[in-house]
Amino acid sequence: MRRHRGDRPRGGEGAMDITAIAIAVLVGLALLAAAARACSAPLKLLLKVGLNTLVGLAALAVVNATSSFTGVALGLNLFNALVVGVLGAPGLVLLILVQWVLT
Fold it and tell me: What pTM was estimated for this model as a whole?
């Protein structure tokens, strides 16, 4: 049987039925959920490290602002901010002790 232009396929000749569409949508949603879950943990860790680095940079700025009173001055750079951001207050004490030992 020849088809003419504009004739729609009848029966199962190429039309996707509703179950195939539903399965494709469910598989797509499952893949999207898996990708979102796989990317959420590293993204949370990256945001946490970034926020802690900013807090560490602020702590270093406070130390440098009070350096005229205390005599303790640390450089405001990314390495020091990362050390203080990751280790917290012990990291700040560690940097101060390293500077004291080396000078």
Answer: 0.57
Pair 72, 59: CB distance under 8 Å: no
Higher pLDDT pick, 97 / 21: 97
Question: In this structure, what DSSP letter does residue 3 have?
Answer: P
Exposed/middle/buried for residue 73 (C-beta within 10 Å: 0-12, 13-18, 19+): middle
pLDDT digits (tens, 9 = 90+) for 24-82: 888 888 888 888 888 877 888 888 888 888 888 888 888 889 988 888 888 888 888 88
Coil, strand or helix: which one is 4? coil
Kindly give, in sequence order, each residue whose CB lies less than 8 Å from that of residue 75, ignoring residues fewer than 6 positions away.
60
Q: What's 8-76 look like in SS3?
A: CCCCCCCCCCHHHHHHHHHHHHHHHHHHHHHHHHHHHHHHHHHHHHHHHHHHHHHHHHCHHHHCCCCCC
Please answer whether residues 76 and 57 qualify as being in contact, where contact means their C-beta atoms are separated by less than 8 angstroms: yes
